[in-house]
Amino acid sequence: MLPLAYATPTAIVLALGGLITCFAGYRLFRIVLGFFGFIVGIMTATSMVGSSSTWTMIMAALVGGVVGAVLMVAAYFIGIGLVGAGLAVLGLHVIWAQVAGGEPGTIVTVLVAVLGALVALSVVRYVAIFGTAIAGSWTFIIGGLALLGDPKALVAASAGDVWVLYPWQPAQGDWWVWGFWVLLSLAGIIVQLATTTKTAARKPARVKG
Known about the structure:
Elements: H1 7-24, H2 29-46, H3 54-74, H4 79-99, H5 106-122, H6 124-147, H7 151-158, H8 176-196, H9 203-207
Helix pairs in contact: 1-6, 1-7, 2-3, 4-5, 4-6, 6-7, 6-8
């Protein structure tokens, strides 16, 4: 994981990047893919190296971030499918946690992800808007809470485990976070729908390449 000293600058990046993603993710889809690829690359790379050397950790973070961003942008043609798969898996985890508790099995998760990807490719614009609004709003919340000193958010902002950024079951008393997430996501969706209506006919073609 990243040294805790870097949690604040990381939180700033997450908050700003999340806010832009939430309200302009569809119009800046390539940039958004690069941003999240960079974040995932950092988290993945730093989880693979030891924490004994700060410089080693920093170099791993930079290299991992660049590689992650390049790979995600290179996957631009399947980006919408990835977003759809991610949204489907997100919904599966939320519903499963509330109904059955725990996490769904690997086979169920894979099947739902594939189905989500196929559906996404048939409704490109809406998947991009909904996906970026939801992911961006949550990323903004994590960054914002970390800047306000929330201990769990600080851990998430510097964590080596990518999935720490996306806890499915907030601790007791933290359910307001979910409410704010929903409201901010809806705001991002409304703004993106309103600001991309005139270019909707052209954007899907650009998204596909």
